[in-house]
User: Fold these one by one.
Assistant:
Number 1:
Amino acid sequence: MSHQDQHPAPNKLDVVVVGAGFAGLYQLHRLRGQGFDVRIIEAGDGVGGTWYWNRYPGARCDVRSVDYSYSFSPELEAEWEWSEKYAAQPEILRYLEHVADRFDLRRDIDLGIRLTAATFDETSGRWMIETDQGGRYDAQFLIMATGNLSSSRIPDIPGLDDFHGARLHTAQWPKEGIDLTGRRVGVIGTGSSGVQVIPELAAQADHVTVFQRTPAFALPANNRPLTGEEKRQAHERAEWRRNAARNSSFGIDLPAPQYKALEVDDAERRATYESYWDDGAATALMLSYRDLLYDREANETVAEFLRDKIKTIVDDPETARALTPHGFPFGAKRACVGTNYPAIYNEPHVDLVDVGADPIDRFTATGLRTESGTEHPLDAIVFATGFDAMTGALTSVDIRGREGVLLRDKWSVGPHNFLGVSTSGFPNMFIVTGPGSPSVLSNVVVSIEQHVDWITRCLTFLRDHRIATIDASAGSEADWVRQVNEAAARTLYPEGNSWYLGANVPGKPRVFMPYVRGLNHYSRICDEIAERGYDGFVLAPRPEGAASTKASSKKPA
Ligand code: N01
């Protein structure tokens, strides 16, 4: 083999996009439409991102399917029909596969390839990108469409390697599935994934032991097939609904709340809460009154409503008490939506172990032991323990910006960014729905479309104005971080030990990462910055005679 074969020339492109989920697929489609030469690299063997990996039984969206889907193509909207109110993982994955085929995206996606390093080269103003398969790419722009909940976490519990049983993580569920019939299954974690998977595991397993550290606020999904009339209306009103979503704070066409919870009487409040409970609509419940996310006393009214529900559902008072969340406001940790939860604890073969009171000590060969010395025999353990959220996918690879600075080092004090789409010192790199943007506090598909449209407009501007590099200025970044922090501090969000804050990862800096002032407000800021010629960014022109992007010589499709 020649030296050249061992180090084949890098694939030279205008743009490399990392990730083929909702964000990456749409980004490829938009940039290709503008004539850019783009490739996606994707670690999975298929497209779908989050919906490719999270195949655990019960995985389902809790935003209505007709809203949790792309709005950019009226034709796509017209031809796709959702079967249920909240779509399950297989249906969402089929949808994304359909999108990849319909827009002929697959020919520009390299599957089964994981990004390992990306280095900005000051001289060329381009990114040098390396992967675990040895392939290299050389691109003017790097777009991280890696998702906020993609870097899954298994906590460091002593003895895990001693455990002889099966080990599963909800976000790494085997593609071929796993039959847990007749087995004793343990589940660690009662966030959104735990709440969804536990009743499904109980339907198969001989015995389920749930290890709960913090009880969650959970609503019933009350999922059901969509009626013919609902499907017809979803199509007929699509344009109106989508516009309303884009102009809303959460990316869903909810009516803006008129009143504060403390302004109305108990009966009215209760009726409001009951209607959202019956609808399985956690976000709508959180937004039902103007003060629920701002005033602890107001929040207690909804928290108490949800606590009372547990007592009416769970037969054993001791179990009901252990399942009741206390000490943080409703909404400060993401509200869960599930089916048959917490009713599943009425089943004799489902046990709850309160590891808040009696912490996990270690795994043994045959199960899990808590600090009191109690042994829990298990044949399989399911980690529903979540993610190194928002930053994990970005800091786990070697991304080096100007002067060789590693992103992971820069962000060791918190994810400093400008608009949640860029970070100073990393020119020509964009993050889709990164920390500092509304992202996870919104219907994320709407946020993704907004970011991808903004990035596409930006890259087109740079090409048309012969700009070689764009970089957030240190001053605009500092100002944005201040605004994001100040806005969060006015809410109750920072009062929960949530992954929004990085509190679930030992050693992670505690910074409230999402932008809380709403998607509508945020989109306006982004648009104004673009209209002012990317105010807050430093733009460097291409030297005379320097090679242009391939795109500049192409006609947009
Ligand atoms: O993860 P989580 P997730 N010992 O971080 C516990 C989206 N999503 O995968 O709260 C014992 O929420 C941890 O306990 P504590 C959604 O945005 C959406 O469930 O840290 N327990 C917690 O109970 C969601 O918010 C859907 O005390 C440990 C759990 O593990 C996000 O993904 C479905 C532990 C982790 O909960 C993440 O949800 C699924 C330890 N050492 C996911 N370490 C929808 O329905 C962690 N835990 C749309």
Number 2:
Amino acid sequence: MATDVWTGVEEVPHVRLGQTADLVFVAPATADLLARAACGLADDLLTNTLLAARCPVVFAPAMHTEMWEHPATQANVAALRSRGAIVLEPAVGRLTGPDTGKGRLPEPAELLETARRVLARGGLEADLTGRHVVVSAGGTREPIDPVRFIGNRSSGLQGYALARTAVARGARVTLVAANVALPDPAGADVVPVGTAEEMREAVLKAAGSADAVVMAAAVADFRPAEYRESKIKKSESAGPAPIELVRNPDILAELGRTRRPGQVIVGFAAETDDVLANGREKLARKGCDLLVVNQVGPDLAFGRPDNAAVVLAADGEPIEVPRGPKEALADVIWDQVAARLDRPATRR
Ligand code: CTP
């Protein structure tokens, strides 16, 4: 442990630590520290280390909401990001004192996972720095009555892996999560939703400023035409009560139609039969740039930590991704997104 620049001066700790580090991870990063780092001050061991470091640098800010939202802090964050640092978005929750809001330090286990992911990139640059990406995850639930819903088996693992890997590549991430029972990935802005309509609203709102949108969520195609305020009783009718269904909006197709110039749109397709033919047809029909096709079945994809897929592109050859961790598939998807973002940019 080192705490000051004057202990062991002969070893020149004020530069040696930064020079030899594989990763500098500042948690918690206060508003004051962000300001000092943005200005390049070097009046203690930490700021000296930050100036000397040539490895990836990650800041995990933690402060009260007002301080995080202050234009001075936001300008400092923007300056650090423009120089390649990864500045995580704070979590939302209980702060020091009775207030709650954005500014909380993410869970330590999630911070560790971010550090692991940044190191796993083996010194590759944070190629999504300065980009805003939107990821949808989980499965929508369409309520029938207060106790029942129409849902699906999506666990949200693939969407969360996409969010984690995008954070580790420097992106500002909005994660629209439908009914996911997983810890919030450190550094992502998590927007919880329930139904397809709620997901549509949240995704379209976030997409307004996004460079890329990845629809990994399983969205219910239909919802009950009518929500019953009281629990449906089996005594209501002699036989099974029919539930009339209506179509939900297709969010991915809407994104394909309404995208900003240069915005990259990625869909997923869960198929049980004719996987590639159905995928190609879906890619064209929904107007996306990339479609990640995976075969689903009783033991495939849902709820498992691994996945295998084919990434179809509107403008290139299919890429087969062998079975492996969902993070590995996520990185292949971001490689493809990043390659397309380099073309005529959509910078704000
Ligand atoms: N999707 C969406 N909105 C919907 C349904 C699906 O945005 N109402 C998105 C999913 O997030 C996914 C992609 O569309 O990225 C493919 O979803 P899928 O259910 O496989 O496609 P469908 O349009 O339902 O086609 P089909 O029922 O013919 O398989």
